[in-house]
């Protein structure tokens, strides 16, 4: 009788047992926030910069050491997170590809299951967000100061398409504006239905403009330099000497916030000088993100929502912070392949736990759907991490991960490549062809450098790294006779992954000569 009475009380207040059983989801993502700049990961930068609020998620949940992005660039990564699919299945290969509105995504699925869905902040997927009861997203890349956001219902204002409709100006700093809009969403939550809110900060994306209150936080501080900051790339493959992502040459005055008269150095001196400015601006942007994450976590605690809310924090990919003398992402190297991933779910995920399993952004959607009690669609490429998050071993979990970057030479001169990453080895193939993907056939390599030349095919090259002996990937072992057998094993494993994921080279006629001459 007491149980029956409880049910009557619950229904009288508009609750249902099934809706209460479903967890809320707060998915927080920052643009280009890499694990080296999150103090929970204990990199060298944590000596001078801490992220105490983001760290709270790790302290109260699980930190993943090996979370990988399927395609290390903003738009494709975001599409993968929403769809649980690789680029070859969701159609978003490059920065210029839209996520087709008709394509299925996690928001659509949860919406049908009774979730209140919302996305706030950076969208960057070209087409209108679908599956969301509420959205308020940045116009294009977005700006740091007084950002323009487009709210649901204003996608095509006055007959203008989305790309021409800039939205409504919000006074303030972008990170604070997005954080406040996310808080407003949570405060309006009526507890009659579970919610999924995606809060996407623009920071710390280029051009790294800090909030006023953090502009001078590193005055008098010397940022630790990575050991490979002054690497000249002469001992690497040919592609590495031809990129446009170097600290020494390719950080522009707009990136550093200086005038031409202040930018007079060259060589090692400019690298040292530019690195310090770049890092101070980048980390100061991260400080505002951490501050706003703290406000969101505090509200969940104060409102009593924390116990039944899954909180995820991630970046849309990794980022070079001077390692190998580089900035930006795109490459399959550890710094840009790895995404930060921290997840908390009280009484479900053990506090202070750590996972070293090979997980990926392709697994995010299946995992959240699994927790929501929803069947994972068969066309999703990822797997649910629910068992891993409970601290259990999953004997069917992957032992190798497949990566592919499609934007051949576009923007920073990084050649198209794919590869396999196991717990110890990494084999990468720079096949050097655009394959007709958007932005890979006629655009200039670097939009900030008029002398960079057009996009053309490049020489195919292989790289092999033993991550146990060489965690910083300084020694390419491809061609070393001691590793001949291992290379063959990895190639066979790579081909099997490509078959499983429907991404075989035979799908692309332009790869015929590459397969014939360089797969041996």
Structure summary:
With 520 residues, the protein is of the alpha/beta class. It has helices at residues 2-12, 17-21, 52-59, 74-83, 87-90, 106-112, 174-187, 247-250, 253-256, 267-302, 334-337, 364-371, 386-389, 484-500, 512-518; strands spanning 24-30, 62-68, 116-121, 134-138, 148-151, 168-169, 195-201, 309-315, 320-321, 327-328, 338-344, 353-355, 359-360, 400-405, 417-422, 425-430, 461-466.
What does this structure look like?
With 520 residues, this protein is of the alpha/beta class. It is built from 15 helices and 17 strands. Strands 1, 2, 3, 4, 5, 6, 7, 8, 11, 12 and 13 form an eleven-stranded mixed beta sheet that branches. Strand 15 (417-422) and strand 16 form a beta hairpin. The chain is globular, with a radius of gyration of 23 Å. The model is unreliable at 1-19 (pLDDT under 50).
CATH architecture of the largest domain: 3-Layer(aba) Sandwich
Strands, count: 17
Question: What is the H level of CATH, i.e. the homologous superfamily of the largest domain?
Answer: Alkaline Phosphatase, subunit A
**Distance between the amino and carboxyl termini:** 74 Å
CATH class term of the largest domain: Alpha Beta
Q: Uncertain regions: pLDDT < 50 for 5+ in a row?
A: 1-19
CATH topology label of the largest domain:
Alkaline Phosphatase, subunit A
Largest sheet: 11 strands, mixed
Q: Would you tell me the overall average pLDDT?
A: 93
Query: Helical stretch count?
Result: 15
Helical/strand content category: alpha/beta
Overall tally of domains = 2
Binned strand content: 15-25%
Shape: globular
